[in-house]
Design goal:
Largest sheet of chain B: 6 strands, mixed
Number of helices of chain A: 14
Shape of chain A: globular
Oligomer: heterodimer
CATH superfamily of the largest domain in chain B: P-loop containing nucleotide triphosphate hydrolases
Shape of chain B: elongated
Distance between the termini of chain B: 43 Å
Number of domains of chain B: 2
Helix content of chain B: 10-25%
Number of helices of chain B: 8
CATH class of the largest domain in chain B: Alpha Beta
Order of helices and strands of chain A: HHHHHHHHHHHHHH
Helix content of chain A: over 70%
Radius of gyration of chain B: 25 Å
Distance between the termini of chain A: 31 Å
CATH superfamily of the largest domain in chain A: MetI-like
Low-confidence stretches of chain A: 273-277
CATH class of the largest domain in chain A: Mainly Alpha
Number of strands of chain A: 0
CATH architecture of the largest domain in chain B: 3-Layer(aba) Sandwich
CATH topology of the largest domain in chain B: Rossmann fold
Strand content of chain A: under 5%
Largest sheet of chain A: none
Structural class of chain A: mainly alpha
Low-confidence stretches of chain B: none
CATH topology of the largest domain in chain A: MetI-like fold
Largest interface: A-B, 21 and 27 residues
Amino acid sequence: MSTRRVERRPAAAVTITVLFFAWLYLPIAAVVLFSFNSVKSLSTFEGFSTRWYSDFFHDSTLITSLSASLLIASVAAVASLVLGTMLALGLDRVRSRSGRAVGAVTLMPLVTPEIVTGVAALLFFTGLSMKLSLVTVMLAEITFSIAYVTVIVRGRLAAMDPQVEEAARDLGCTPFQALRKVTLPTLVPALLGAGLLVFALVFDDFVLAFFTTGVDPQPLPVRIYSSIRFGVSPAINAVGTLMLAFSALLIVAALLLPRLFHRRSSSLDLITGGERR
Amino acid sequence: MTTPQPAVTLRGLTKAFGPETVVDSVDLDIAPGEFFSLLGPSGCGKTTTLRMIAGFNDPTAGTIRVGGQDVTSTPAHKRDVNTVFQSYALFEHLDVRRNVGFGLRRKGIDRRTIDQRVGEALELVQLSDRAKDRPTQLSGGQRQRVALARALINRPQVLLLDEPLAALDLKLRRAMQLELQSIQREVGITFLFVTHDQDEALSMSDRIAIMNQGVIEQCGTPEHIYENPASVFAAGFIGTSNLMPGTFDNGAVQVCPELRVPLVGSNGLRPGDRVSVAIRPEKIWISELTPSMVQVPGTVVASSYHGATTQYLVDVAPGVTLTVLEQNLPRMSTGDRWTPGSRVQVGWLPEHTVLLT
């Protein structure tokens, strides 16, 4: 009888869930819909057209901004992955009190309001009289992203059996070879997940980019923001839809890539909480 | 030709973690081809001893020799020993075949030889059909065998096994015990087996060392240790024992005013020495006593039927209760069993009294 009761779905829960997702996704769906509008209205849909997409692809400043954002996100993902993984490995091996303190400090960027980080980065760069450019955006984004990588990789390391690395040494690996041949390959799903997460976060990050970017080229979110001030063009809807599609693609990649490596668990399980252990 | 070197020699091996001495000046010689068990309760230092031999922990003092060669300061990857870990510690990013071949690849052996030896090793542990599987696709028993094959394939001088069967259920554990024994005979490699399971140690080993609080209490064949425990701890840890503390006096041990246990020899004891005597439950008879036995009257306070045996608790003196294990022989009927309250005479042969000083 009690098993029966579990199967029955309470109507209230279903309703709330549907309303929640509607609230969450209907505005986004509207953006997608109006990106295909044939007229420049944001309230009435007249007919299907791809003119706003062609507008976007013919707007060289938007294209430049898109490539700038892609470049920033790639560099930030790779660099924070390398640095964050090194930090995670180090913290995992340090057992001292000071080591744990460093571990806690690492998490600071996750809880610091981004606007504070942004202002701080701006003051720092101008204090050093560095010219604001894509490089300063990258530096700020890398600094900010290391924490994400470290958290994800440390999570995976904590779940890892410490005897696995000993087994590698037992079978003839130097400590460095054990790291390269066993620990890092075991971390691949976590590394992929962390890399894609950082890429997605940085790609559409506005606040940090806004404070640290130079005049030209601007990262895409900053560029969109400035163009909205001169009136909203449906081309922005097209850009938004493309970014959405791209992000969705990244998530699918994060879910599928590990499967290509014959792994049962996906890197995104770390984020979605899909896997046990 | 020189005389064969012991596979493992430990001299004064000591490990301290901070103020706590976990392994305290252990001396041990393990012969080549021996199945040797380190047996003791958790925290007795047996695993730390094993880890020092493997090279994962540095000794605080003492030396480790493997095959006569001093390896005390040799890093783990250069020692000619391999380990089967309690958690198996398989490489989850590699399939079974590559897990097993890992050590040989590190040694730079050519691929054809590796493939051939991996095939042999998998055959030895009966996993030839799972070569392409990932460790996560295997059952606990199969993972255990992959771990064994992965270590054995390197033909080390000594194979170190750290409670490898602890995670298996009872039935599988029994099966793996037999399998381990036969594999060890087949390959002839010295096994150093760490366990807290006395049954496991007794049934598998050529010799056992009982460890307690960082020191080896006793070392010998399973039979010798069982029949002649050298300490109160050894007597209590291996099997069950009727342990009775008392005072030595005139060729006997006075357990209490009502109970006096005569000894065969007094080996240098002086009157008044505090000693203990131990008698195994199955060595005590409750019927068919013979005149040569030490005989004590008592009262049955409990009896429990275990199929092949019946266990009685017999009060023989105030505060002294003996556990008696009697075989249920074919000629006995249920009426032959004693019921609580029965007045009985229990007895044992004097040589079965073990004196513990």
